Fold these 2 entries.
Entry 1:
Amino acid sequence: MAPFASEKPNADSWQGVQGDGWIGPGSILGRCQLVSQIGEGSMGTVWKAWHTTLGISVAVKILRPCRDREAEIRALQRFRQEAHIASRADHPSLVRVLDYGEDHHRPYLVMELVRGPTLEEWMRQAPVCEERTALKVAGHIGIGLANLHQLGVVHRDIKPSNILIHPGRHVKISDLGLAGSPVGLDGQLAGTPHYLAPECVLRGCHDDARSDLYAVGVILYRLLLGRLPFEGSTKAILHAQAWERPDWTIPEGVRLDAGTLYVVRRLLEKEPLRRMQSALELIQACREQVHRLDRREQMASDTPVSVAPESMRIPVDKNRTTRLPVREAGRFRRGFERVVRWLSRTFAP
Ligand SMILES: Nc1ncnc2c1ncn2[C@@H]1O[C@H](COP(=O)(O)OP(=O)(O)O)[C@@H](O)[C@H]1O
Ligand SMILES: [Mg+2]
């Protein structure tokens, strides 16, 4: 039986795209039969669909028609470019593209269906995220970016609604609609103001992979502090992105390690040269900080060592020298120091 075969729609409901371009449940685009709309973005609508020859459920993004002919041509160019770039990107951290077509003048992109929420939806449910989870999310985005950057592609629109959370608990970067070579095709300001790097605001286009890292910094800031670095009108946000410092006040009830804040600060540096330089550096920094937090928690949860003399005896192996494992040795040393302190207090003259 084909996977998810129960999702196969009823063949009676099949119909092609209507002459007036109407699209709805049951419409057929290429080899896909649309089932239900699952998302909407700036470029088009995304549908859950049934791929009739592969026998699997897929996601189909359909380009929204524009009223203006010039805008339509530009959007089509971008959509074709998205399909071309996404088909080259082959990594579990990037949404896989299966096909591209133009049916009844309706361009569409067939992708793997991610059956989880977007990071935006996830954050709306839990505005402040646990420190280690936030670092892991940022690290996973870094993995996807490292793969894109390796292809010479800058995403240019990293934001929570373009990050999908796979039920296997890893993230997938989607929407390469603005992606392209580091020098923008149209040279226009593209992207979402809240996540736009200062150099993009000042120079008017993303020309640098480090701009994607700034956007990850904004996501991490929002995950940890439950708010965006800058809010207000588009003009005010763009001004702040270029010239103002974010508010680093930590909300009540939130505890953050200095090392975690340092990672965010390095991502949000205004000057690209002072920012983290690559996605690999981001992955490394998140990994190290998670390990540091794990170690700290492990040390804090170590049961206090009893100072009773019996419990402090080192097991002696008569045939060879016994070496305590590092953690045990640490416990022993701490216990020993405690006894010395107690003795010196008790026998102080
Ligand atoms: N492969 C996918 N699987 C499941 N949902 C998706 C997929 N791709 C996109 N979506 C949903 O559709 C929304 C819009 O998709 P997106 O590619 O960002 O479109 P746009 O280019 O118009 O912004 C996303 O926020 C998400 O909710
Ligand atoms: Mg989008």
Note: Strands lie at 15-16, 27-29, 32-40, 44-51, 56-63, 97-103, 106-112, 163-166, 170-173.
Entry 2:
Amino acid sequence: MAPPRAVARRALFLAATPAVAARRAPRQLPRISSQRASSTTSTTTTTTTGPSLGSGVRTAAFVTGLTLSGVAVYIYTTDTRAFFHRYVVPPLLRFMYPDAEEAHNAAVSSMKNLYSLNLHPRERASVLAANGDPDISVSVFGTHLANPIAISAGLDKHAEIPDALFALGASIVEVGGCTPRPQEGNPKPRMFRVPGIDGLINRYGLNSRGADNMAMRLRERVRRFAKTIGVDELSVLNGEAGVPPGSLLPGRMLLVQIAKNKETDESNVDAVTKDYVYCVQQLGRYADVLVVNVSSPNTPGLRDLQAVEPLTKLLSAVVDEARKTDRKTKPRVMVKVSPDEDEESQMEGIVQAVWASGVDGVIVGNTTKRRTGIIPPGVGITPKEQMTLTETGGYSGPMMLGRTVNLVKRYRKMLDGQSWREHVQEKKAVDEAVDASIAGIDDTITGIPKEGLAAKPEASNNIPSTGNTAEQKVIFATGGITNGRDALQVLNAGASIAMVYTGLVYGGAGTITRMKDEIKKEVNTSEA
Ligand SMILES: Cc1cc2nc3c(=O)[nH]c(=O)nc-3n(C[C@H](O)[C@H](O)[C@H](O)COP(=O)(O)O)c2cc1C
């Protein structure tokens, strides 16, 4: 924190050297001594040096006090636990920006500016490191994450503030959704609040600046990071900087979400696949995990891609392209599925496509088109809010939690189904046998040593590349998670990570810190 530290250092310096401080003291202070000097000669010496020294010390003390107060205010206001992050900022944003999208844009640009000035809210490491705290770390794709909380897609649509979001304490940040070509999204207004039930409705329609633009921004971020630590861009991307190439932070992961353009005909699977593949080519290098979005309710036909055949084709193409990423360790691939496709046959189709394509995991949940069961019993909402609930778009809010927990349980069971694993293991055995015979032929012809072709051992700070297709599929949960207890519910249902969006909008910048504290308290209580 350059400015306050500079001020603090100067203040300490002034306090330690009163003579210098006295020289710099404001002019009116010596005037008191000159008045006294005119009364007697004998007092001249004492009055000119005495009060001047004393006032110098007082000034130094005053400046020091002021500075220390400034530092204290800085430390407090930039701490995610400051009360106003929860009780002042969110209502103030709602008051100042009646349009929810304007509030969203203002929040993103404030975070961006505050981050560049090092004045952004952050979770201070010491906060959560109390002795005897239960361990809430999780391991995902071989990466050890300090906590199971993530920020889900749509908050940072254009990858403008991933670092500011990581600073809030999340171990995973998902940026996007990003489409191959820039698109405006739906006409405004397209985001609405239902504060009586802490809910939101949005029909953004995947407004995106396009994959080239996002890639440029993410590349610039990698370059800046490489420069700070004195290595080149490629070394960072190859994991030689000791951090995952996406998040650029130890023990964190950056997810980049990709989608198709609205104008791409959803019934033309080849064209759709081309859209996603282009995004992989542009963005794969900067992601720890690529997320295939086939579940946003605001792009016509997008959710039809969840049918087994187009989904298998699409996901297989994305996985293949991700494996070609020009980087030592390849990005993992996940698919984000809708909470509304919840019939057994629909879910089974998705699971089949996941296993057949080699995708590494599923993000279960998104906003819902349904409007049933979203008002808690006994809670009244205003006529205006009732009108808002009739807006077209995807609803998100705490009442989605029950559905999310239920879906996670069902997906966990289906994904772990023995039949899928056996099928993949059989296929893997056949593939390996074929590979081995081809390698044998290659060896005879070219003489390439076998170890030269073997997969390199993974660095501990890297996300290991997709390889073992029979390993358990990972689930991240999203939808209605707003506190630590909710997070524990989805984790106990079979998810590895609990993702938040709407909870942050209403709960403010301290939401994630609070959730982690709540998880720890819950764990402690249940262990007691
Ligand atoms: C304004 C807004 C924009 C969103 N944009 C996206 C998006 O671009 N891609 C996506 O997959 N999900 C998007 N979502 C869905 C969220 O990522 C999340 O899955 C959903 O809101 C449920 O979680 P929550 O209850 O914590 O909000 C958006 C949600 C909101 C409220």
Note: DSSP finds 20 helices and 13 strands in the chain.
